[in-house]
Amino acid sequence: MATIRLGDKAPDFTADSSMGTINLYDYLGDSWGILFSHPADFTPVCTTELGTAANFKPEFDKRNVKMLALSVDGAASHNEWIKDINEVQKTTVNFPIIADEDKKVSTLYDMIHPKADSNLTVRSVFIIAPDKSVKLILTYPASTGRNFYELLRVIDSLQLTAYHKVATPANWEHGNDVVVSPAISTDEAKEMFTKGVEEIKPYLRMTPDPTA
Length: 212
Ligand code: BEZ
Fold this sequence. Notes:
This protein is of the alpha+beta class. The protein has helices spanning 24-28, 44-55, 57-62, 75-88, 104-108, 148-163, 186-192; strands at residues 14-15, 22-23, 32-37, 65-71, 97-99, 123-128, 134-140, 166-167, 178-180, 198-201, 204-207. Strand 4, helix 4 and strand 5 (97-99) form a beta-alpha-beta unit. Benzoic acid binds at residues 39-40, 43-46, 142-143.
């Protein structure tokens, strides 16, 4: 297992899932992807997370992001658990959950942190761009459920900064002003960003969100 770092190609794999056999690259196609692990089926925090993820799927779809969950339980277990998630979270889990009983994928992606738990995956998140490069890595412990608003927020930032010469400041949300990339001069920025550029410091230039 090699460490996966930002910019690396997401390792491809073929695995069983709640929706049958899945190949990561075929599944993603030309879309963005979010691959996220959870510790185990039939556990409380995971139930809230997977239900929330399912309820947020239209927002991921809007951003052209395919969702893929994973735990080291089998496909039959995932499908039994999905019935509970659908019932208690009033949703329909409509994305695959990888069945990683042999820990092949969780090992490939370093999702088992032995000092946290030697058998179960932690709450890892990998956001993968259409060119299959890894754009974001997050790791949460089993005891802390993820904030899916934050995942959407960070996808908005990743997608904006992939296509425009900007960066997003602290607590940024879609529509807020953005930072002009330090790589371009203020004069260049004034030509590029027709909505205006404010130079607060020579290294801190703000411009309205070009996509808002
Ligand atoms: C949970 O999802 O609630 C959970 C799973 C494993 C350890 C602790 C909490």
